[in-house]
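[job 0412] stage=complex_fold ligand=glutamine status=START
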Amino acid sequence: MRIGVLAVQGDFAAHGRVLKQLGVSWCEVRHPEQLREISGLILPGGESTTMLKFLLEEGFWEPLQELAHRGGAFLGTCAGAILLAREVTNPRQPSLGLMDISVERNAYGRQINSFVDRVLSPVFGPPPLEMVYIRAPIITRVGPGVEVLAEHGGYPVLVQQGRCLAATFHPELTDDRRIHTRFLQLAEAASAR
Ligand code: GLN
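[job 0412] stage=complex_fold status=DONE, emitting structure tokens
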């Protein structure tokens, strides 16, 4: 099994460090052809508009849809979650639509650009998940096929649909590896097919 980390912009290096620590075979993805060799892809945090522009210009759109089609796993954190969504607002922008969620960008406002909180996930159980939010989006709608793994302030912040996981915060910036481990299990299932 091999994991790819989209390495255009943002905190892809932090995800790479986590994968290295977990002893996983992984690569930085900068060309669409590389998607053929992986069974899971991480879309990091950063600036979704910049990543979107790159994905469109470099011909990533179809190969990404194909990876999803053949059951590949995805983990999108913050900007990555925005890219995975079906609908993006504030302002509207195209997205991959691999998860039936709507997200509003930069939804916490200027006063609270960034914050850290701890929330107990009913799915993961104790200890609480440490959540680092940086100019984070809010998930404003989840479709019927989407499971909410954690909430914060009444909004879903960690969701799963099939082999896709999206977090509006940054698990790669904490020492808690449970979210990456769950993603790797999904990618394992994908590579076993
Ligand atoms: N504000 C960024 C965006 O809208 C996301 C921020 C992040 O990934 N930490 O793309």
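The mean pLDDT is 96.
[job 0412] exit 0
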